[in-house]
Write a structure and sequence with these properties.
alpha/beta; Rossmann fold; two-stranded parallel ribbon; 4 helices; 20% helix
Amino acid sequence: MKKNASCNPVGTATTTWLTPRKVIAALGPFDLDPCTPVEGMPWPTAKRMLTPAEDGLNTPWPKEDFVWHNPPYGKGIEKWLAKAADHGHGITLVHVRMDTVWMHEQILNHPNARGLVFTCGRIRFHRLDGTAGEAPPVGSLFVAYGEVAALALQHAVAVGAITGCYVPLNGRGGVAANDGEIGEETFALSLTQ
């Protein structure tokens, strides 16, 4: 996982941080990881793992492939998220940045986004040698694109493999009610009160 300097664990200089093996195991198996570090991985994240030399952003992702997607953080993340959202069949892991355009366009309001997990606590990402690093200064968000991904996230939370809160999305830019549909009530904030 690539991160910019502002998202690095305190006191580190590297920008390459790997998703812990137990997270991948809890959510997979995956067919494709388009964001494998150039240095490789000490454990597989998917059957097919693309490095920057293979250009996962511009390489077609087969529609049937269930994708693990932990994109490079920082400038250009919106392109990666647009591709994942439009692909619609996989799980993306990003930092929680609720005020960004990409969060609103590619996650909260995208019709393929079917669920979210806001982590409780910070994920301790791993170094290239597989050892755990310190937690980053920001929280993480798992995004389910498609129903299979939503079920995988729900299961991972239910069995305690991921600690966090699962939020179902209705595919129409809203949080799903218990029955999977938007409720009848409309809530408005009055700025004049």
